[in-house]
Design goal:
binds uridine-5'-diphosphate, globular, three-stranded antiparallel β-sheet, seven-stranded mixed β-sheet
């Protein structure tokens, strides 16, 4: 049962009026080292093997993110980038602490540059609060500095987008005589529905009528714009840490390898209204979430699943892994 009129949640994609496959809720790419997740999803789709390259628009230049040696060469004069190359351990992923603690002042400067131009303004826009109040554990997802020329956003073993889109993948998944689906039906309008086992994938605080208070969510509003150009961007995703009100702009055609006339850009505007896109993984919310999950764990025949059910900031592969682990446990 899904209150949406489609399956797949935020992975939903569809062909627009110009026959362009558009990911309606921003760029989704499967990136995983988990064989079980990869093999499971591969039962429902063929893949377009896509390695995301993300650029950041920084001081008028498009710079590869995560910041790597290419980004250093684009950004700084030759003498500075040469001195960085002298100071690094090639291939190492540097944390901010390592950059700031280094005895090489060039690495300290590089750390400050990346922090001030890539992380602080982007995170403040994304999360709507000052840097000092942002839980830094969110940031483990993006390496501050990668000391090589690998400018892929992810380095996982499997990286791909479903050949015919995510919606098709999910409709294939539920296409079984053992599965009846109800779309456009809100569980909260049928609170007394009888069930043997209930797996709830919506907001866990709402399930319990907010009895321990509301959990915080960050919302994203997506705007899609059609252009007659074949492509508008040189890559699938461009991040805008400082400029404009949107955080990033994605161009579906890069992700899907679709050959069509025209293209669509998707702009992401973070805010506090709309539908919940991200949980806020800070201490206060984690404590509140644990109270809700305790009730779930102590209620027979009730389970939660997915990002909203578990109130966890997961990538798609982690959400799939969670679903597989849950079903394995039955
Ligand atoms: N981040 C950032 N600058 C960037 C990219 C990411 O500061 O250019 C930080 C930001 O706080 C963001 C987090 O890293 O919320 C996770 O980024 P990711 O790209 O993994 O976000 P998602 O794709 O889940 O929106």
């Amino acid at each position: 049962m899904d209150k949406n009129k489609y399956v797949g949640g935020l992975c939903y994609d569809e062909y627009d009026e110009n026959n362009i496959l558009v990911q309606r809720f921003g760029p989704h790419i499967i990136h995983t080292n988990n064989n079980k997740v990869w093999n499971y999803l591969s039962k429902f789709t063929n893949w377009f093997y896509y390695h995301a390259n993300v650029l950041g628009y920084i001081e008028g230049k498009y710079v590869p993110i995560p910041f790597n040696l290419k980004s250093v060469e684009y950004t700084f004069p030759k003498h500075f980038s040469d001195s960085i190359k002298q100071a690094i351990y090639y291939d190492k992923n540097y944390t901010f602490k390592e950059l700031f603690d280094s005895s090489y002042s060039q690495l300290n400067k590089l750390g400050s540059y990346i922090k001030e131009n890539v992380f602080v303004p982007y995170s403040e826009k994304q999360w709507g609060k000052p840097w000092i109040n942002i839980d830094k554990s969110l940031m483990h997802r993006v390496v501050p500095f990668r000391a090589n020329y690998d400018d892929r956003y992810y380095t996982a073993k499997y990286q791909a987008v479903p050949m015919c889109g995510f919606s098709k993948l999910f409709s294939n998944m539920v296409d079984s005589h053992n599965i009846n689906i109800m779309l456009g039906v809100d569980y909260f309008n049928l609170p007394n529905i009888a069930y043997k086992n209930l797996i709830f994938t919506g907001c866990v605080d709402k399930l319990f009528n907010y009895r321990f208070g509301k959990l915080d969510y960050r919302h994203i509003n997506f705007k899609h714009r059609y252009f007659t150009d074949e492509y508008k961007q040189s890559t699938g995703v461009i991040n805008y840490p400082k400029d404009f009100d949107f955080t990033r702009v994605s161009e579906s055609k890069h992700l899907t390898n679709q050959k069509t006339k025209g293209t669509v850009l998707t702009y992401e505007f973070p805010g506090n209204n709309g539908f919940p896109a991200y949980c806020v993984d800070d201490k206060e919310n984690k404590e509140r979430k644990n109270k809700y999950l305790d009730i779930v764990n102590n209620t027979k025949n009730l389970y939660v699943c997915g990002r909203l059910g578990n109130y966890s900031y997961w990538s798609a592969d982690e959400a799939v892994n969670n679903a597989l682990s849950l079903t394995d446990s039955f």
